[in-house]
Amino acid sequence: MYLYHGYVAIASGIFCKYWLILTSALNICSVQLNAYLSIERYLLIFHSQFLQKYKIILHYLPIIILIISPFFFMIGMVNYYPCENHFDYTSWACGTACYTLQPVPSTASWIYALLAPLFIICTSNVLLIARVIYQKRRMLQRNVWKKNKKMLIQLLSVTGVLYVSWVPISISSVITVLHPNQTLYELQGNWLLVGLIYLAVLFSPLSSSMAMPELRNEIRLWINRWLRRYRNAQTYPAAVTRLQTE
């Protein structure tokens, strides 16, 4: 409704707080879960027995915490930080919460929500690739890069989408708070930076299919069946037309 009319559905502070908390918490959940899954992927490959032994502590508990904690964090920052919110009902998510205009809490929240998880994702994947290649070289295997090409493509596709989506808006937001810049304000207001966030959502199915061979094969079979039906549908009317003309 906002994108169509240019203003929020319900012009009230309660609705704006709900919108801010929900969207921000879900975005934080997405990035932080990806960060933890990068760590868990490393443990699953090189320390699978240790991970299975402490599965509740190392698998289920962190996921539950990472899903719940962003909501508590955003509720506390939006509702209880000692400042007064001034919402703009013609802006996406009613503009922003007042704590984001303060240098210390704004920078700390961006580090907690985005910069730290993105750093963990990058570091974990680099360590994973380096250790796999190192172990295979120790085993005197040839064509190490060629044999691990699929793994590299999978990891780069997941991390690349996240970095393209979140790094520009994260860096620009921190710079805007520390040193206000009119150009960055305009880029964020015109959706040139905020719109990149949704690339992670739109391309998640594609990156997931690259990481799951079974899903990729199923998609390929579905596309082939659809193309076969489409070609048959195009061929049948042409054959009927020729018979009628004869």
From TrEMBL:
<feature type="transmembrane region" description="Helical">
    <location>
        <begin position="57"/>
        <end position="81"/>
    </location>
</feature>
<keyword id="KW-0812">Transmembrane</keyword>
<dbReference type="Pfam" id="PF00001">
    <property type="entry name" value="7tm_1"/>
</dbReference>
<feature type="transmembrane region" description="Helical">
    <location>
        <begin position="155"/>
        <end position="179"/>
    </location>
</feature>
<feature type="transmembrane region" description="Helical">
    <location>
        <begin position="191"/>
        <end position="212"/>
    </location>
</feature>
<dbReference type="InterPro" id="IPR000276">
    <property type="entry name" value="GPCR_Rhodpsn"/>
</dbReference>
<feature type="domain" description="G-protein coupled receptors family 1 profile">
    <location>
        <begin position="1"/>
        <end position="208"/>
    </location>
</feature>
<protein>
    <recommendedName>
        <fullName>G-protein coupled receptors family 1 profile domain-containing protein</fullName>
    </recommendedName>
</protein>
<dbReference type="GO" id="GO:0016020">
    <property type="term" value="C:membrane"/>
</dbReference>
<keyword id="KW-1133">Transmembrane helix</keyword>
<keyword id="KW-0472">Membrane</keyword>
<feature type="transmembrane region" description="Helical">
    <location>
        <begin position="6"/>
        <end position="37"/>
    </location>
</feature>
<dbReference type="GO" id="GO:0004930">
    <property type="term" value="F:G protein-coupled receptor activity"/>
</dbReference>
<dbReference type="InterPro" id="IPR017452">
    <property type="entry name" value="GPCR_Rhodpsn_7TM"/>
</dbReference>
<feature type="transmembrane region" description="Helical">
    <location>
        <begin position="110"/>
        <end position="134"/>
    </location>
</feature>
